[in-house]
Amino acid sequence: MSTTSRTTLVILDCYTVEPSGLGVPPYLSTYARAAYGALRTAHPRARIAYLTIDDVRWCLNGGQPHEQPPLSDRLTYSATANREQALQLLGEAAVTVVIAGDAVPSVHLQAQNGSVEEIARALACTRGRRVLLGPLANYALADPAAYGGMFDAVHTHTLTSADLTEGTRQAAPYDRLAADRGDYHGLIDQLSWTPVAEIELYRGCTRRRFCDFCNEPVKAPVVNFRTVEDVLGEVALLYGAGLRHFRLGQQTCFFSYMNRDVATIEKLLAEIRNSAAPDLMALHIDNADPLAVASPSGAKIAHLVATYCTEGNCAPMGIESFDPAVIKRNVLTCTPDILRRAVEHVNQAGAHVGPGGLSMLLPGLNLIYGLPGESHRTHYENLAGLVRILDAGLLCHRINVRQARAYPGTPLAAMQEREPLPSVEHFTSWKADIDNIFDQPMKQRVYPIGRKITSLHSFFVTSRGTWHRRLGSYPIQVVERDTARPLYGAADMTITDHAPRYVYGERDDASTGT
Q1: Which of 54, 197, 287, 360 has the fewest beta carbons closer than 10 A?
Q2: For residues 101 and 32, what is the distance between their CA atoms, to the nearest angstrom?
């Protein structure tokens, strides 16, 4: 039993990874903040404890990491200030809100989202009401037998103080979410890392025709924009709680905010920089529909992003496939020619290098294998399309190559009974082809040997060495070989070599930190 009479409420963050938003530390998701606001409004005198699945893993492993120091352990890396009391807090909680995304583990360098089995083990410690929030709710609704008895209520999109223990299948209006929003100090102070706040601008997709595999039309079939004032109010509250890193990333396309309204987008970016968060350290975007970026207004918006946002920014664009057969079969509206124009617009606006050694804004590319219509020819078309971008002398921040996952309710989910596609067998080797033919040569172009990148910090140690980065959207990672530096030390690094997914560097003698 708790030694205090205050009610205990728990948020257990098992992380979310979605096409339209990230909720893996250091990113602080919209789900976590909505849950905190709902609990605080419904129970203003309660203690609200924020836990991660890493806290639970730490306790269940006897208070030990799974990797031996000085190596960092991705399973317990993102622990909070509540780590030692995680199981006790779960046992005391009158309500536990579980935030969870994909049913399949998503492995990142410094994190791994909670599996269904891990969530079940954590909930075995609870006696109070158990509430699920996030994309995992759709899997639970699609297969209730597999999740039977785990949750008392499920929320697929949002959570408010009015529906906390009831469950919802639709997103709450933005003004209702704003009514629960308040001081974030109580949440931020529990984190053991410096967070990047994921900011949502709207729901839904502005395209007239939707891609068959996309989950956004399932989540939000109607486009609903937040007002500039609502966004600025949330940023100001987070800034007031000490946050200095922001990513406008929880939507399908930043460039399509307010239907590509250039003046409104400039107002949003300018007022974030000048009033809502004047001393911010990072302002980045995520998700860019190449159709929007390739348009005349897209070229103007790219210049606004390069002007008002901070360097190292990335506009990830989904070509998904260069294969005409896959494009036609899956109603993909981006063609290689459209993508080329979009990449050129972003390069023209942001390829120039900022004072810290990073380009102001570069495109990212997204490819998906495993879509209907795929053949061995698909891989050839993808390689040929990427080589054309290389040969044109264009710059790209990164490429993301993944296999398609069917989200419940999408057309792709209805096609899963088909014969296995070639990428089921060949994905690993095909991805290695892209690494060697496109990604590594592009790293050599964007980060030439001898380039100095400043204001990095050490954040992870593996057998390769110490990994350094800045906080932001898909930051470049600089590996200092054969070292085990203390975490969070500041460093300036000079590039010495390249790999497909990161670069190598040597620490500048004048670097600060230990």
Answers
A1: 360
A2: 12
Query: Are residues 489 and 457 in contact, defined by beta-carbon separation less than 8 angstroms?
Result: yes
Task: Label residue 500 left, alpha or beta by phi (over 0 means left) and psi (-120 to 50 means alpha).
Answer: alpha
Residue 408 and residue 217: Cα distance in Å, rounded? 12
> Residue with structure tokens 């697929």?
156
Give the start-end residues of each E strand in 345-385: 361-369
Helices (H), 197-335: 216-219, 228-240, 262-271, 290-294, 296-308, 324-329
Region for residue 242 given its phi and psi (left: phi exceeds 0; alpha: psi -120 to 50; beta: otherwise):
left
Q: How many CB atoms lie within 10 A of CB 261?
A: 15
Q: Which of 171, 11, 27, 202 is nearest to 106 (CA)?
A: 27
Distance, CA of 340 to CA of 361 (rounded, Å):
16
d(CA 251, CA 19): 9
Cα(52)–Cα(160) distance, rounded to whole angstroms?
Answer: 21
Q: Are 468 and 458 a contacting pair, CB within 8 Å?
A: yes
Domains and CATH numbers, the chain: 1-193 (3.40.50), 448-507 (2.40.50)
Tally of helices (H runs) and strands (E runs) in the chain:
18, 23
- Continuous H helices in 136-274: 136-142, 174-180, 185-188, 216-219, 228-240, 262-271
